[in-house]
Design a protein that fits this description.
Blueprint: E1 4-8, H1 13-25, E2 30-37, H2 54-73, E3 82-88, H3 91-101, E4 106-110, H4 126-134, E5 139-142
Parallel strand pairs: 1-2, 1-4, 2-3, 4-5
Helix pairs in contact: 3-4
Pfam families: Usp (PF00582)
Domain UspA: 1-143
Protein name: Universal stress protein
């Protein structure tokens, strides 16, 4: 049975590294490239949350489709099949909910953490940390 791997992508270099890792490590797996549309995210050019309308959601889905296209274009092997999907909500909870509702065997995501001070302690980003702590499937965090 082939594995089903969810790769969370937030348009960061860490997420792209996670996609490339999943494709190289699990060449025969079903890859689902996933983007959580966060209705609570405020960008630098916004002073408040946007209204949650159908047009806002359509715009977010169009942005996700562009993100997916760019992620695919950056992959070396152009013959690979990558499924895509989105869901609306807080990224950690949305990722975990999607995994529970789908036939996903493993999660691969980028870690936005960094080393601090001379101890070089490994720190995860907040999304990665919550997913690692709460997932009921194995999680690989790529840095």
């Amino acid at each position: 049975m082939a594995r089903s791997i969810l790769v969370a992508h937030d348009d960061s270099s860490h997420a792209q590294a996670a996609l490339e890792y999943a494709l190289e490590t699990f060449p025969d797996a079903r890859i689902v490239l996933f983007h959580a549309i966060d209705p609570f995210a405020v960008t630098a050019d916004e002073s408040e949350l946007p209204p949650l309308t159908e047009s806002w959601l359509e715009e977010q889905r169009a942005d996700a489709a562009e993100l997916f296209e760019e992620a695919r274009e950056a992959v070396v092997d152009e013959d690979v099949t990558i499924e895509t999907d989105t869901a609306v909500g807080s990224p950690p909870q949305t990722i975990l909910g999607y995994v529970e509702d789908s036939e996903i065997d493993q999660i691969v995501l980028g870690g936005r953490g960094r080393s601090a001070g001379p101890s070089s302690e490994f720190r995860l980003g907040s999304t990665a940390e919550l997913v690692v702590r709460r997932a009921n499937v194995p999680v690989i965090v790529v840095r």
